[in-house]
Amino acid sequence: MLILPIVNKNRILNVQVTLKDAQKIHTGVAFENVDSSEIIVNGKKLSESIYTASCGDREALNFVRNNSMLYQRDYIVTTKEENNTSLYDVYQVSPPPKRVSDGLDNLYGRVLTDMRKESPRSNKGRYLSFKKIGLGDNLTEEKIAILQRIVKEVRDTSKWPELFERAGIADLTDTIQFIRNFDCTVVKDTTIPESSIEDAIKALEIIHTRDYKNLKNYYETALGNSDIYKKLSYISKMIYNEPLNLIKSNAQKEQEDKNNEE
Questions:
Q1: What is the pLDDT of residues 130-164, one digit of tens each?
Q2: What confidence tens digit (pLDDT) does each residue in 173-201 have?
Q3: Is the pLDDT confidence value at 262 over 70?
Q4: What is the pTM for the complete model shown?
Q5: C or N terminus of the chain, fewer CB within 10 Å?
Q6: Are 238 and 253 in contact (CB under 8 A)?
Q7: Using the 8-state DSSP alphabet, how is residue 97 labeled?
Q8: 85 in Cβ contact with 41 (< 8 Å)
Q9: Helix, strand, coil % in the chain, rounded to nearest 5
Q10: Contact assessment for residue 191 and residue 13, using Cβ atoms and an 8 Å cutoff
Q11: Residue 238: strand, helix, or coil
């Protein structure tokens, strides 16, 4: 479970990040010639590829992209085996979007790795820092200022793509489109008042234990994630006249699904 801690309205939310188009199609299975923690693209296996020797987050994504060039088909991801069994779960995933930046590729690759390391029927969280994966590296103040100027001075939105391209900020639009491939769902009953975290850090600062370091790092990660998310939302608001609205509760998602069905 990939968890994005983020500060929102004086609270820290713990948000599960997944691929929007990833569907779990099998649970508790073990197919012949298909191992656990595997990726299969157009019949090619990650475990039998040149990427398996140093298979980090980006290598897994590169494997998927390189084997999807000729045929853009859904691919398969298997999880780890369930404890004390040889059974695993299976995801079906749509082809990844085109590359925009290292940070976004790191995010996609991190989610792929999270699926491959998932332990069925067991929750084990891994924290995600937008800053550490470089997600905000291309969201510079200079680029945002250029975007502001173009949007303010040119009312004809049909001219924006060309102007963005000429100004070297087309990747801002692409970033918003890419980030919308993810589902960000608030994990129920894990929201923490920001003041409680601040009080705990202050109380533990004197003894400087491992708990203090972990809690301080968690809070700083949440603050950093909030800063980058605000930039993304601001860019979305300028280009599409609507905030990003990526992070939602289960209740909000259920209501949206209900509205779509109607």
A1: 999 999 999 999 999 999 999 999 999 999 999 99
A2: 999 999 999 999 999 999 999 999 999 99
A3: no
A4: 0.93
A5: C
A6: no
A7: P
A8: no
A9: 45, 20, 35
A10: yes
A11: helix
